Amino acid sequence: MLLASCASEEERYCDALGEAAPRIESLGRQAGSSPAASALASLPVLEEVSAEAPPELVDEWTVVLNALRTFRDSVRAADVETGPGAAEAIEALPPEERDAVQQAAARLAAPQVIEASAGIEDYGTQVCGVSLGA
């Protein structure tokens, strides 16, 4: 009985991942060349996929989504767009807001976030046959 339950969790996750991949790719194209803008545009879709994550990926999704949400919140609080010209706009912010955005951006590249992203991507490609391009 437990094995059937696990397989169904895996299938739901793989289905969600498969449905999300083209949406994420499309959102990324619409967001332009900025990886930050692409990630933020994809955040709602990533949250949907994470809701179907099997138990072995919950920690990875938590790390990645927390980093993205922190970045999103800092950008919103500073009222900065993440597209072209964002670097200049961030540099022009008052020091406290600039530091918050820069720290949140740096967190996206932190080793634990990179490792968690890699774990999500590896599972997706090896188990589901789907790549999110992480």
Describe this structure in words.
The protein is mostly helical and 134 residues long. It has helices at residues 2-31, 35-50, 58-78, 86-91, 95-108, 111-128. Helix 1 packs antiparallel against helix 2, helix 2 packs across helix 3 (58-78) and helix 3 (58-78) packs antiparallel against helix 5. The protein is elongated, with a radius of gyration of 16 Å. The mean pLDDT is 87.
User: Which H/E pattern describes the elements?
Assistant: HHHHHH
Low-pLDDT stretches are: none
| Percent of residues in helices | over 70%
Q: What general outline do the C-alpha atoms trace?
A: elongated
Mind describing the biggest β-sheet?
none
Summing up helix and strand content along with how strands pair, one would put the structural category as mainly alpha
Tell me what portion of residues adopts beta-strand conformation.
Answer: under 5%
Mean pLDDT: 87
Radius of gyration: 16 Å
The number of strands is: 0
With helices defined by DSSP (H or I, 4 residues minimum), what is the helix count?
A: 6
Distance between the termini: 34 Å
